[in-house]
Amino acid sequence: NTETGFEMKDILGIIDETPIITAPQLELWKWIADYYMCTLGEVMKAALPAYLKMESSTKELINNYKSKYQSYVFLHPDIDSEKKLNALLDSLTKARKQGQLLTKYIELASPLDFVSPLEIPKNELLDKSGVSESVYSSCEEKGIFISVKKKTDRLKNTAVALKGLPELSPAQQKAFEELKAASKPVLLHGITSSGKTEIYIRLIEEALKEGKQVLYLLPEIALTTQIIERLRTVFGSKMGVYHSNFSDAERTEAYNNLLKFNPQAASTCGEEQLEASRGEGILGVRSSLLLPFKNLGLIIVDEEHETTYKQYDPAPRYNARDAAVILGKIHGAKVVMGSATPSLESYYNALQGKYDLVKLSERYGKAVLPEIRTIDMKRAYWKKKVVSNFSETLLNAIKSALERKEQIILFQNRRGFSPFVQCADCGHVAKCKYCDVSLTYHKYTGALTCHYCGYSIAMPSKCPSCSSPNIKTKGFGTEKIEDELSLLVPEAKIERLDLDSTKSKYAYHKILSGFEAHAVDILVGTQMITKGLDFGNVSLVGIMDADNLLTFPDFRAYERSFQLMSQVAGRAGRKDKPGEVIIQTTTPENPVIRQVIKYDYDAFFATQLNERRMFNYPPFCRLTVLSIKHSRQDILNEAGNVLKPILLKIFGKDLAGPEPPPVGRIQNKYILNFRIKLKKNASIDHYKDLINAAFTQLKSEKKYAGIITVADVDPM
Ligand code: ADP
Ligand code: ZN
Ligand code: ZN
Q1: CA 694–ligand 1 middle distance (angstroms)
Q2: Best substitution site from 306, 534, 576 to test ligand 1's pocket, by max atoms within 8 Å of Cβ?
Q3: The pLDDT of residue 105 is above 50
Q4: Could you tell me which residues are beta bridge partners of residue 310?
Q5: Residue minimizing CA distance to atom 4 of ligand 1
Q6: Which of 461, 476, 591, 644 is most buried, with most CB under 10 Å away?
């Protein structure tokens, strides 16, 4: 083709009979590519499950996506009466495991219908009864059970009894009405346990009734587990789930379900709710924003302040919360952003009238906000009132909560055993070979691991520098807390919830349902445990080390600290039992800690906003960070000097840098950052081409061709 300069190719075959991308979806993709300075292809790559991706999709691959078969188990029809069943149970007293399996079946299938006994997925039955496949096989041989293989929707769940909706409290009802009446995107500022989720459920119900689709965004997979169970009891399987722990087949299925959504036929309720999802709704993390919705009526962004809504690597470096507002505009859908601790940006937007603001400032029911205390760790050390990493006060509170049979959450924002190890004789600290960070000691794996690149070595027995055997672990992470606790309160059952303990697919579910069922007394975790979880029996929350949060080198450190501490505090006293929160810190007089203790969001907001104004940070400017990376520091520094005048010409005094970030080398690449602070109403869109041209100009010089360039718009 002479016009485009591209050579035309013949079409060999058609992979998809119908489009796999919807018009509103494409519109959002384009906006993301534009605003966050990446290519449309990068957005597409993030959006499509591998099965649907062009680069890997030959026809075979698509056809390889086969339906999954699952075994379902039901009671043998010969056992057709209560009497026979009891006789059978009696006969199994010796075969304990078989009895266990049968009892579990009866429990799950209850009330038992002897004519058509409930079919239960075999893996679920085995899982819940805790017996092995071979136990099941012997039962089948004895004629107790029959199993059938059936084609299943991967996402279909077993039937649940649909419950009616609970009545809203007057405060909830008022907020609900205000949310319905809102004409702009709306921020729901509701304190922890004020019943926001219950209100979301009402809004979802209304949208579904109108035949519209619903998107419910959550910041973390850990949360989807609990909330999906709450939603399932109301909406059956109308709400599908979508997250990164899913296999590609499951994601493809969720994707295809949305494509099958038929806006005209959607508004049916009742019996059909139990059918597999037909694309009415999705509950999911960040990337579910990019799915093929056709007619969204409602988007919920729960815990809107969470930084996990922002993707950093790879592109698209988008913030799903902000992009949700755009998606809402595209569909004409209501957008509700909820939080007990709104981000400064969103709250500012609300005060400026860009968003509507709805407040909910009391806890649901009899629950009251827990009392928060600080323990001055400097004084405690000095008075020798610290055991391991526990102040005497916290330890005593833990013991008495255990005595009262109440549960405890302990928060430490570091995983692993200790963040660094040091030789007591020469001071040598073990560092990552590829990054400028110390290696974290993990006791369970016996390894020193880099949290930036995954590099890992065995814990050395001698110092590599002076051969001294005197290597000490310094600081503490979740593993160490867990370890110390098992010595301090040996009677307690302890679980850990962090990135390391949740690597396997159902780990979240296992840990959280164990805690829910009170099979676990104390849950130790990183920020994963701070948000959204709802456990009625937690009466004590301990924040192990507030200093570690407050001293993080970032302009959002205070905001993050306020949010994390308030959120984790909010896990206590959610039902009728009052809760207690203890914060361990060496700086109890820190203003942020004072604001947390007093639940004073307004004071927090006012002081932080003031700082942002003084130092010209978001929401007073639009921040964009340009990074250049290279394996050789000298080449990188030179490149920084080459790029600087080019960028200065474009941005003038809005530009700062080049400057290395706090971790100046990651995965063997040195990093330099430029910061651009544009006026609030200016948009980076206008500068996109200029920035790209500057990057291209730099890389056109052979010496700098290997430089990696990154633009991060609205970094978190
Ligand atoms: P939030 O999302 O604001 O933290 P939740 O929606 O989780 O709060 O509500 C806190 C607790 O109160 C939950 O256990 C929830 O089931 C219960 N709850 C909230 N509203 C109601 C209601 N209207 N009726 C009965 N229980 C409610
Ligand atoms: Zn040494
Ligand atoms: Zn590393």
Answers
A1: 52
A2: 534
A3: yes
A4: 319
A5: 193
A6: 476
Percent with pLDDT over 70 in the chain: 93
The 10 Å Cβ neighbour count of residue 661 is 15
Q: Measured between alpha carbons, how far is residue 439 from residues 204, 411, 422, 467 in Å? A: 46, 21, 10, 18
Q: Report whether pLDDT(66) > 70.
A: no
How many degrees, rounded to 5, is the angle at CA 429 between CA 423 and CA 431? 145
Radius of gyration over every alpha carbon of the chain, rounded to an integer in angstroms: 28
CA of 675 to the centre of ligand 2 (A): 39
pLDDT the model gives residue 673: 97
Dihedral through CA 238, CA 243, CA 248, CA 254, nearest 10?
20
By the 8 A CB rule, do 576 and 587 touch? no
Q: How far is the CA of 428 from the centre of ligand 2 (A)?
A: 5
Q: What is the DSSP string of 169-194?
A: PHHHHHHHHHHHH--S-EEEEE-TTS
CA 475 / ligand 3 centre spacing (Å):
19
Question: DSSP string covering 285-351, please?
Answer: -GGGGGS--S-EEEEEEETTT-GGGB--SSS---BHHHHHHHHHHHHT-EEEEEESS--HHHHHHHH
Lowest-confidence segment of 53-57, 91-95, 689-693 by average pLDDT: 53-57
E-state strands within 340-381: 356-360, 371-376
Least distant ligand from the CA of 456: 3
Which residues lie with the beta carbon below 6 Å from any ligand 1 atom?
A: 166-169, 172, 190, 192-198, 364, 534, 574
- Evaluate whether 287 touches 254 at the Cβ level (below 8 Å): no
Whole-number Å distance between alpha carbons of 709 and 643: 11
Work out the end-to-end distance of the chain between its first and last CA atoms, rounded to an integer number of angstroms: 44
**Residues lying with their CB under 5 A of ligand 2, a single-atom ion:** 423, 425-426, 428, 463, 465-466, 468
Residue 358 in this model has a pLDDT that exceeds 50: yes
For ligand 1, pick from 179, 188, 197 the residue to mutate: most ligand atoms within 8 Å of CB.
197
Amino acid at 173: Q
User: Which residue is closest in CA terms to ligand 1's atom 19?
Assistant: 195
Residue 156 is predicted with a pLDDT of: 43
Alpha-carbon gap, residue 304 to 306, rounded angstroms = 6
Q: Which ligand is nearest to the CA of 423?
A: 2
In DSSP terms, 188 is beta-bridged to 338, 358
Give the sheet arrangement for strand 407-411, strand by strand: 371-376, 580-585, 538-543, 407-411, 522-525, 494-497
Residue given tokens 């990054």 in the structure block: 435
Per-residue pLDDT tens digits for 473-508: 999 999 999 999 999 999 999 999 999 998 877 788
Greatest CA separation found in the chain?
A: 89
Tens digit of each residue's pLDDT (9 = 90 or more) over 122-179: 888 998 888 888 999 999 999 899 887 765 544 444 444 566 788 999 999 999 999 9
Ligand 1 atom 15, closest CA: 195
Neighbours of 502 (CB within 10 A): 21
Residues 208 and 201: their CA atoms lie apart, in Å, by 11
Q: How far apart are CA 278 and CA 616, in angstroms?
A: 47
User: What is the number of the ligand closest to the CA of 467?
Assistant: 2
Distance from C-alpha of 429 to C-alpha of 439, rounded to nearest angstrom: 8
Question: Which uninterrupted H or E stretch holds 239?
Answer: strand 239-242
Question: Nearest C-alpha to atom 10 of ligand 1 is from which residue?
Answer: 193
